[in-house]
Specification:
Radius of gyration: 20 Å
CATH superfamily of the largest domain: Enolase-like C-terminal domain
Helix content: 25-40%
Number of domains: 2
Strand order of the largest sheet: 8-9-10-11-12-13-14
Number of strands: 17
CATH topology of the largest domain: TIM Barrel
Length: 387
């Protein structure tokens, strides 16, 4: 469905040279290959994301993606409205090279909506990189790595199907696996861990509860989990239970990662002060962009904590932004989970496959985000467009 842009792209009808001349907001529905359960909810059928396109007056196109999840942070409909109604007047006519200034204004203009801000920043950086002939990673500090170990999340309630998938991915060279726990009982979690350890002695196994444990009995359950030697346990209890997070971190030998507990740099400072975790899952969608995500990673590094490249349910477009973030951020050392485009979506919206080889994400070197959007695929999956 095509909806006329509101408000008008240029309030005074004038567009300066080399400025943003047009903004298009696409609400997309991307079919997925199966069900995935998490401690706070399930995903099945399709995911609803928002794709942003910025066109400059001199013909450069920048792309960004927002991937909210209602159980985690918000809805695609609210994200599309934030971009279309509130951020559009800020962007149209602006000099896209002034990324920091535009994002500072966006932060003052609307509270929350980190995914909308992440999409906007990615699109601006995409334009800046294309104009400069540089990859986005070079614009935000310069790459410190060319490949990133890829983690796959095991979350299908049909564990037999997941075992088949792990066998396929193991052949592809993937050695990092994160088991989603806390959605079907403690015994189910232990049985799956035992099966994975029995079949594979060369994998790095992680565990993620997505807030799925009650604090009352969490430590006893997690000591059972520790017997399977996970490299970390992510967000075992609800984000609001900071005292429980701190107690668990103090009680266990296995490192504890905070995800839902840390959205912003201020959250990261409080997490360090309260010692609620041994590391953070860094996501551009929850932090509001690559630059604030880098700040969170740097806070973690300064405190001696670890950092992991997390994500939501992005297409390859959102994965590209995350890839440039990890490539340019030395503190993010625990790999990434940018697997959806290749291993969960039925089809992606890029003109080339998201680059994964031998169990690792390959960092693009082409200008901007590095791979173009397939506009025909985007049109196919768009359920509403504005602009």
């Amino acid at each position: 469905m095509k909806i006329a842009a509101t408000p008008a792209d240029a309030p005074d009808g004038r567009i300066a040279a080399d400025s943003v001349a047009r903004m298009s907001v696409h609400l997309v529905r991307l079919p997925v290959t199966g069900r995935r359960d998490h401690g706070i909810g399930a995903v099945a059928g399709a995911v609803d994301n928002v794709v942003l396109r910025l066109d400059t007056s001199d013909g450069v196109v920048g792309w960004g993606e927002a991937a909210p999840w209602p159980a985690f942070s918000g809805t695609a409909e609210a994200t599309a409205a934030a971009l279309d109604r509130y951020l559009r007047p800020l962007v149209i006519g602006a000099d896209p090279s002034r990324v920091a200034a535009i994002m500072a204004d966006a932060g003052r203009l609307i509270a929350g909506h980190p995914e909308a801000k992440a999409a906007l920043e990615a699109a601006l950086l995409d334009i800046a990189g294309k104009r400069a002939g540089l990859a986005v990673a070079e614009l935000i500090g310069g790459r410190c790595r060319d490949t990133i170990p890829l983690s796959f999340s095991i979350a299908n309630p049909d564990f037999a199907a997941d075992l088949d998938k792990v066998a396929e991915l193991h052949e592809d060279g993937i050695r990092l696996y994160k088991l989603k726990t806390g959605f079907a009982g403690h015994r189910f979690d232990l049985d799956r861990l035992a099966a994975l350890r029995e079949r594979y002695d060369d994998i790095d196994l992680r565990v993620d509860y997505n807030q799925g444990l009650e604090p009352f009995d969490a430590v006893r359950s997690l000591r059972d989990i520790e017997a399977f030697r996970p490299s970390f346990i992510e967000q075992p209890v609800a984000a609001a239970n900071r005292a429980a997070m701190a107690a668990i971190t103090a009680a266990l030998d296995t490192p504890i990662l905070a995800d839902e507990s840390v959205f912003t740099p201020s959250d990261a400072l409080a997490a360090v002060s309260d010692r609620i975790a041994d590391g953070f899952s860094i996501k551009i969608m929850k932090s509001g962009g690559l630059r604030p995500a880098q700040t969170i990673a740097e806070i973690a590094a300064a405190a001696g904590l670890g950092a992991y490249g997390g994500d939501m349910f992005e297409s390859g477009l959102g994965h590209l932004a995350g890839t440039h973030l990890v490539a340019a951020t030395p503190a993010i050392t625990l790999g990434c989970e940018f697997y959806q485009a290749r291993y969960y979506l039925e089809a992606d919206i890029l003109t080339e496959p998201f680059p994964v080889e031998n169990g690792a994400v390959m960092v693009p070197t082409a200008p901007g985000l590095g791979i173009a959007v397939d506009t025909a695929a985007l049109d196919r999956f768009t359920v509403e467009a504005r602009g």
